[in-house]
Amino acid sequence: MMTQAHLHSLCLLALYLTTGYGQEGKVSGPLKAMTLPVFEGQEPSQIIFQFKADPPAVTFKLTGETDDTFKIDSDGLLYHIKALDRETKAIHNLQIAALDAQGATVVGPVPITIKVEDINDNRPTFLQSKYEGSVRQNSRPGKPFMYVNATDLDDPATLNGQLSYQIVIQLPKINNVMYFQINNKTGAISLTREGSQELDPAKNPSYNLVVSVKDMGGQNENSFSDTASVDITVKENIWKAPEPVEIVENSTDPHPIKITQVRWNEAGAQYSLFEKEKLPRFPFSIDQEGDIYVTQPLDREENDSYVFYAAAKDEYGKPLARPLEIHVKVKDINDNPPICPSTVTVFEVQENEILGSNIGTLTAHDMDEENTVNSILGYRIVEQTPKLPTDGLFLVQTYQGVFQLAKRSLKKQDTPQYNLTVEVSDKDFKTLCFVQVNIIDINDQIPIFEKSDYGNLTLAEDTNIGSTILIIQATDADEPLTGSSKIVYRIIQGDSEGRLGIDTDPQTNAGYVTIRKPLDFETAAISNIVVQAENPEPLVSGVTYNASSLATFKLIVTDVNEAPIFSQDVFQAKVSEDAAVGTKVGSVTAKDPEGLNVSYSLRGDSRGWLKIHPVTGEISSVAPLDREAQSLYRVRVVATEVGGSSLSATTDFLLTLTDVNDNPPRLVKNYTGLFLCYPLNAPGSVIFEATDDDQQSLRGLHFTFSLGSESLQDHWEVSRINGTHARLSTKHTDFEERLYEIPIRINDGGRPPLEGTVSLPVTFCTCVEGRCFRPAGHQAGIPTMGMAVGILLTTFLVIGIILAVVFIRIQKNKGKNKAGSAQASENQPLRS
Ligand SMILES: *[C@@H]1O[C@H](CO)[C@@H](O)[C@H](O)[C@H]1NC(C)=O
Ligand SMILES: *[C@@H]1O[C@H](CO)[C@@H](O)[C@H](O)[C@H]1NC(C)=O
Ligand SMILES: *[C@@H]1O[C@H](CO)[C@@H](O)[C@H](O)[C@H]1NC(C)=O
Ligand SMILES: *[C@@H]1O[C@H](CO)[C@@H](O)[C@H](O)[C@H]1NC(C)=O
Ligand SMILES: *[C@@H]1O[C@H](CO)[C@@H](O)[C@H](O)[C@H]1NC(C)=O
Ligand SMILES: *[C@@H]1O[C@H](CO)[C@@H](O)[C@H](O)[C@H]1NC(C)=O
Ligand SMILES: *[C@@H]1O[C@H](CO)[C@@H](O)[C@H](O)[C@H]1NC(C)=O
Ligand SMILES: *[C@@H]1O[C@H](CO)[C@@H](O)[C@H](O)[C@H]1NC(C)=O
Ligand SMILES: *[C@@H]1O[C@H](CO)[C@@H](O)[C@H](O)[C@H]1NC(C)=O
Ligand SMILES: *[C@@H]1O[C@H](CO)[C@@H](O)[C@H](O)[C@H]1NC(C)=O
Description:
- The strands form 16 sheets. Strands 50, 52, 55, 56, 57 and 58 form a six-stranded mixed beta sheet that branches.
- The chain folds into seven domains: 4-117, Cadherins (Immunoglobulin-like); 125-235, Sandwich (Immunoglobulin-like); 245-331, Immunoglobulin-like (Sandwich), CATH 2.60.40.60; 345-440, Cadherins (Immunoglobulin-like), CATH 2.60.40.60; 448-558, Cadherins (Immunoglobulin-like, Sandwich), CATH 2.60.40; 565-658, Cadherins (Immunoglobulin-like, Sandwich), CATH 2.60.40.60; 666-772, Immunoglobulin-like (Sandwich), CATH 2.60.40.
- It is 6% helix and 41% strand.
- The longest helix is centred in the C-terminal third of the chain and has 27 residues, at 785-811.
- It is mainly β.
- Bound molecules: 2-acetamido-2-deoxy-beta-D-glucopyranose (10 copies).
- Its main location: membrane.
């Protein structure tokens, strides 16, 4: 028996070692409190643990919930002899004690807990094999409408007890679209998005699903599974947008008025409305039955349609479904009268618009709905003011509002303006609108002369220029003070010379005929003047000036004896100053308007140079002319009628004398003071200057100088300094103490050259301190009174000295007449 037990233990040990099973890898240990896991469902006689105890312990004792299943042998091997089942008993509480040979407890008893570990030894099972459920069309996707439920006895804390649901089959299934989904953890069945959109009880009200449940989280090949059948009925969803609502505007019924309703599929939903966009006022409400009301009268003219949403929520405020769009259309009633486009509508019409012309359109407005009887307007003229020249000048097209001329073209002369009262009506209302028709003048009226013949107009031919000789008058019926009525008078006949002009008074259109150029009996004694009256603006086509725009008068110019008239205002002539006496220097002509002979005479011929031929007007010289005396000679010429009243006219004759080289050169002044000191010590010289009275050329004077007598060449020499100056020099020193008159020839080099011989006085005199003390000749300048006395006294003194010297010379005999020193001086001698 013992042996058998030992053998048994050995087998257990071997098994135990091969399985390698044990807590924390330990299969044996000292006896102490511990928890030992043991898998359920294993074959019996499995060693759980081997306890060890020190002597004196020799054996072990097992107590507690052994249930005839757990055993311990004397070696301390704990084992079970029946298979364990976690689902029956998961925890076994044992106590083990170590005993000595006497059976006394050495260690313990200590608690040993056997924890039965789960294995997947139970299948999941649907609680029902067949489920039935229903779903509303258009239910929110993902919102569960039914559950399937399965159980599994295995430990839910392990994979063995974790269930996963799945739809295996959906029948019918069109286009492979799943309409249903299942929550793999909870078994909740809901619609997919497609299901929410496409399920339609009218098409297919029932579906069958095969759902499966698997343990091991559904992820293990070895998981157990179960299936169940689910029948689903699709029911109509009554949560649907109602038909668009029409509300007649401006309702007088008491509000609120129910207009439509929404209903959630089940009772107990919370309803609310919200706007699509924020409006100034939102006249709608909903009650908890889902009835929708309009709360106040609507105005189509304010807003002709409303769109808003109705929402249904559960008691937690979570939306039950999509909100429904509610459309409200406001129906028009004729509650608006027609409105005139403006207080007064103004049309402008030209005078020549023909009968039937459209002259304007009155477009009144009606706020009521367009293209309905409420807003279709009719037009009618109810009054025309003034009724000139007749009533009913205008008509209006009843529905278009187009105004036309009904009878004739309008004339501004009749009235410049018509006021029309127009009745505009819709179905129920009438409005009066006012139309003002302004008539625009056109130039359709020609000027009409008050008379066509202004008769004979007799004027003296000497009537002053600028005189108004006649006032003519035409009138124009076009609008005053415009280019259509303004009148311009134009002489179209009888005045080709333009002697007359006509100015128009802009206010009265009177034409003032004035004289612009002298009248002339001799050329035009009688003129038939034709005057045309015209507008500055062109006439409209179809209207032309006719004879009524013409007037005539006869201008009769009477003769007046007039003075002769020179053919020129002034006569001019030019003649060379050396013209011979009797040369014709010019001529004048004058004519008497009356044709009388004219006799010419001169006045103011101060130099007596000219004479005029009384008949021919030829002017000729009667004396030598001298440009140097007067280069521009002015005389007056008089033309006198022969006979008649001897009227005369005068004008100027201007004679310009042109220069000829007719003046010989001369000394520039009277050289009275040129002297050389006597006796000459050396040859001396004096300088002089020449000039010429002729017109000088631009390059100045260019004289050449020479001695006037060949015989003087031994004694004198002339040398040119420049064009005007020359030097007279002595050739020796042997001169007497006296005045020498040296003839000098001066040539002006002109064309022809003119030569003059002048006498240059040079005095040889005794010099005192460089001054000529006693001029030998008498060529003094004009002396003053004091000077004259001085001269006289000096003369007496000198005479005395001379006499004395003469006597002394005579005494000392002659012969000693040799030259002393000669002093050249250009100083002025003393004036004595
Ligand atoms: C499934 O059935 C079990 C047992 O009847 C129950 O405890 C559990 O609440 C059910 N689960 C659902 C989702 O109904
Ligand atoms: C269960 O569903 C969740 C999400 O719905 C998914 O992530 C998971 O993979 C699913 N498990 C299985 C086993 O299909
Ligand atoms: C009228 O209502 C529509 C829709 O509700 C909105 O879009 C529009 O702005 C409203 N018009 C006025 C004038 O309030
Ligand atoms: C309602 O109608 C009456 C007459 O029918 C009118 O006088 C009133 O102006 C209307 N109200 C609106 C808001 O159109
Ligand atoms: C037309 O009416 C206006 C006022 O609206 C008035 O000034 C004018 O004189 C009227 N014209 C005629 C021709 O009645
Ligand atoms: C105007 O003068 C003409 C002659 O030039 C004469 O025949 C006519 O009778 C005169 N008319 C008047 C109205 O004097
Ligand atoms: C000229 O025309 C006007 C109308 O424009 C008419 O009254 C007048 O009689 C006409 N005169 C002549 C001479 O034809
Ligand atoms: C006018 O002069 C011309 C010649 O010059 C002469 O024949 C005629 O008789 C003169 N007439 C008078 C009215 O003197
Ligand atoms: C020069 O003398 C002459 C004759 O004596 C005299 O007629 C003339 O006036 C004098 N000229 C000057 C400028 O003194
Ligand atoms: C000519 O010579 C004189 C004397 O030298 C001088 O006074 C004068 O200015 C000269 N004239 C000219 C034009 O050079």
